[in-house]
Specification:
8 strands; homodimer; Jelly Rolls; 119 residues; seven-stranded antiparallel β-sheet
């Protein structure tokens, strides 16, 4: 019997910010939920676009051509190779969509680099 | 200046059910919003998985091993080659994620087959 993936239920089990959990696979892509809070490492993904869809709260993505601030139900695709810095002073819950091989800090390893974790 | 994609705003402009609109591209994948209502064509996609994420309302996906009913914030991935029939008696707003070449009725063309439309 198939069961739904409930994004809020998975997020309720996450306390640490910037620690994505893979909740579903789509071919060789991951759907990941992450709790954001504060400032993330500026980085880029030379090999892939990346989707940010805000589920609750507010997330700003700092880009060289301006910031984009997302609220619930709003998304932005950071193009391949584009430097970006997620910034979330008040916190947010976010759905990320990207190839399964994608590392959260891309080309800029930092103390926020996270292992891929599948729920 | 980058701007967010607002899923509710795009959906507000859609009146017809089962007519997806591509709101964003992720590499060679589409993110599509669709208004569902009533019964869709049973079909499968021999070449790809397909993500259904419900934004509002309720969507049932009939599968050979049981139905899965999704509410807001719940998703299901229909595996490649799996027959499925979306059914939404009371209506829903849904985000679909799938390769850009994917046709909504997959291997079963019907009067509900829709052209790919990019917002």
């Amino acid at each position: 019997m198939p069961t739904p993936v409930d994004l809020a239920a998975v997020l309720a089990g996450i306390t640490q910010p910037w620690q994505p959990r893979t909740v579903a696979l789509l071919n060789d892509y991951d759907l990941r939920v992450v709790r954001t809070h504060g400032e993330f490492t500026r980085h880029s993904h030379p090999e892939t676009d990346e989707v940010f869809l805000v589920l609750s709260g507010s997330l700003t993505i700092r880009l060289d051509d301006g910031d984009v601030t997302l609220g619930p139900g709003q998304l932005h695709v950071v193009p391949k190779g584009t430097p970006h810095q997620p910034y979330s002073p008040d916190g947010a819950e976010v759905l990320l969509i990207e190839p399964s091989a994608t590392v959260n800090t891309g080309d800029t390893p930092s103390e926020l680099t996270a292992e891929r974790r599948v729920v």
